[in-house]
């Protein structure tokens, strides 16, 4: 199996700001690679360089076997790009939009029209085909935008925060579409700051911070790096939190983290089953009533926190984009 | 090489077509294009016009129409700027740039679309003029020459619009910039003869590139108010109506191209 995307030592700076600081990436054909990181980590810059929108200062990259710097046109013929904007002409209908982008892909007018109809059908927009895009719902516009990046069934699809600012239903729709495209052999590079999105879609994840990859692997591998399982204890009363925390800490042999807002104590467990028993006994000994006790795999949020020493700030980023 | 050129023309046509379709699917646009000249003709021709003096005498609406034609062309700066800025903000520009199309067609398509739009807009405005009693009096050939000079002004404004649109990058900012530019399109000989203004303002109005086109149009249409004033700039209106747009284009076309290339930096 060949590599659909190869990036070696990509560097890009804007004045004093280093956007890419030696980024490396290797994405096998037919897989989804998630680029995960907070805002300003360099995710979007990386995508823009690979999609030929931005020239890198130094480094080497090939996409679908074509060199990004020396042969950008060949790359453009093989890629699709969807960013967080709905990059369609709002005055035009869905069909006219897709026809226009088809012609710009150098399909004949007849072929562009045929392809437009196929894509409208496939993305569930046939009934809205003749309505102007500005009258579409947010989810429909998103699908039209995805359809537009799929005119030529691209070998490589770049999705730059495709579900930012979308409600959960639209998000699920986008995920379904992406899964069906991947099933047909498209390679996807997905940037996101929604950790569950990467978890849902990606075969491999590269965590980016300050313009370089600081960790990569499958979602399971990354979670394993945090130290196996996590134990969550939710107590009934907030006043019990500190007692519960010391009991859990004693049982797991570490300092647990406490989330006061949801009255939850969380601790990693190296020996999950034994630790769970010890936690339950410990809580009983100190007389604390637990509303819920759960043993679970760590989330990517915890992975990110562990790797960078800071939370992924997914909430604030979403607000910034919305503003 | 030839194949590339052919694709360039095909892509330019595709982008132009994108704009022309909106005339067909959106009749409101035709109404919008009509409202502006009608409003100006009513406002200046009838509301202010009753108090206006034409140097050397004559009908004010005869004096006014060439001014409105030139204004219509200058307002193209605002249109072009807004469309370019919207394409950038919506990510449409990025989408075009990620397609295997000829990159030059993005700008060339904008260019030809705006020229066609403006030509249609000018025809509508001329029709408005004919309705209120304006006409050309110096032969069809001279009239066509005047139209050509008006379109040349629009061509120059196009490049100012593209350049500013690339810089501001959002339609809201484009609106704000247009608010600042708008007064400069008013300090001209379009509505009032510069010799009736305070000296310094009259000087500015005479040297405003728009005034040269206005003066040239008056002269070639054979309307009243041609060659008002004795200054060199006023008496060489036809020459300057060709020179000014060429100078503006020579400045803003390379600036726009450079700015466009900077999108990938």
Automatic annotation (TrEMBL), chain B:
Domain of life: Bacteria
Recorded family membership: Belongs to the ABC-2 integral membrane protein family.
Intracellular or extracellular location(s): Cell membrane; Membrane
Residue ranges occupied by any ABC transmembrane type-2 domain in the UniProt entry: 28-263
Membrane topology: Multi-pass membrane protein
Keywords attached to this entry: Cell membrane, Membrane, Transmembrane, Transmembrane helix, Transport
Entries under InterPro entries matching the protein: ABC2_TM (IPR013525), ABC2_TM_bact-type (IPR047817), ABC_2_transport (IPR000412), Nod_factor_ABC_transporter (IPR051784)
Designated name of the protein: Transport permease protein
Transmembrane segments: 20-48, 68-88, 119-137, 143-166, 173-193, 232-255
């Amino acid at each position: 199996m060949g590599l659909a995307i190869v990036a070696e030592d990509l560097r890009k700076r804007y004045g004093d700001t280093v956007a890419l600081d030696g980024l490396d990436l290797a994405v096998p054909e037919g897989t989804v690679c998630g680029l995960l990181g907070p805002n300003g980590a360099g995710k979007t810059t990386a995508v823009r360089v690979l999609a030929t929108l931005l020239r890198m200062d130094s480094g080497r990259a090939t996409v679908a076997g074509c060199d990004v710097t020396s042969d950008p046109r060949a790359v453009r013929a093989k890629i699709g790009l969807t960013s967080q904007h709905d990059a369609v002409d709002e005055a035009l209908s869905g069909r006219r939009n897709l026809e226009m982008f088809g012609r710009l892909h150098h399909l004949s007018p007849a072929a562009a029209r045929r392809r437009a109809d196929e894509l409208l059908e496939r993305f569930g927009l046939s009934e809205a085909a003749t309505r102007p895009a500005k009258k579409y719902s947010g989810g429909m516009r998103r699908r039209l935008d995805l359809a537009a990046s799929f005119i030529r069934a691209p070998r490589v699809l770049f999705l730059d925060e495709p579900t930012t600012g979308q409600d959960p239903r639209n998000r699920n729709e986008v995920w379904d579409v992406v899964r069906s495209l991947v099933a047909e052999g498209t390679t996807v590079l997905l940037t996101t700051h929604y950790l569950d999105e990467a978890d849902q879609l990606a075969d491999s994840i590269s965590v980016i911070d300050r313009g370089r990859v600081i960790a990569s692997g499958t979602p399971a591998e990354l979670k394993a790096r945090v130290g196996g399982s996590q134990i969550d204890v939710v107590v009934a009363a907030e006043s019990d939190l500190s007692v519960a925390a010391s009991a859990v800490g004693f049982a797991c042999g570490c300092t647990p983290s406490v989330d006061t807002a949801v009255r939850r104590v969380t601790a990693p467990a190296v020996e999950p089953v034994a630790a769970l028993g010890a936690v339950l006994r410990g809580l009983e000994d100190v007389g604390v009533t637990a509303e819920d006790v759960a043993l679970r795999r760590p989330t990517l949020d915890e992975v990110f926190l562990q790797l960078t020493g800071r939370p992924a700030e997914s909430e604030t980023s979403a607000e910034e984009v919305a503003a | 090489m030839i194949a590339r050129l052919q694709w360039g023309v095909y892509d330019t046509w595709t982008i132009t077509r994108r704009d022309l379709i909106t005339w067909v699917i959106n009749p409101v646009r035709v109404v919008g294009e009509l409202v502006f000249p009608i409003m100006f003709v009513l406002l200046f021709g009838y509301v202010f016009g009753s108090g206006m003096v034409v140097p050397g005498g004559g009908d004010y609406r005869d004096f006014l129409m060439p001014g409105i034609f030139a204004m219509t062309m200058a307002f193209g700066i605002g249109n072009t700027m807004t469309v370019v800025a919207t394409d950038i903000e919506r990510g449409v520009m990025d989408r075009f740039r990620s397609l295997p199309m000829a990159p030059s067609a993005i700008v060339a398509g904008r260019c030809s679309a705006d020229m066609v739009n403006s030509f249609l807009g000018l025809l509508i405005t001329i029709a408005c003029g004919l309705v209120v009693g304006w006409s050309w009096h110096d032969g069809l050939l001279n009239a066509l020459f005047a139209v050509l000079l008006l379109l040349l002004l629009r061509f120059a404004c196009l490049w100012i619009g593209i350049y500013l649109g690339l810089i501001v990058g959002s339609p809201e900012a484009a609106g704000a910039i247009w608010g600042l530019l708008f007064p400069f399109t008013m300090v001209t000989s379009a509505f009032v003869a510069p010799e009736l203004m305070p000296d310094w303002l009259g000087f500015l109005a005479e040297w405003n590139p728009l005034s040269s086109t206005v003066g040239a149009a008056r002269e070639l249409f054979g309307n009243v108010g041609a060659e008002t004033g004795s200054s060199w700039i006023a008496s060489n209106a036809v020459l300057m109506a060709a020179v000014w747009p060429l100078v503006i284009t020579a400045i803003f076309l390379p600036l726009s191209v450079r700015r466009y290339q900077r999108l990938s930096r």
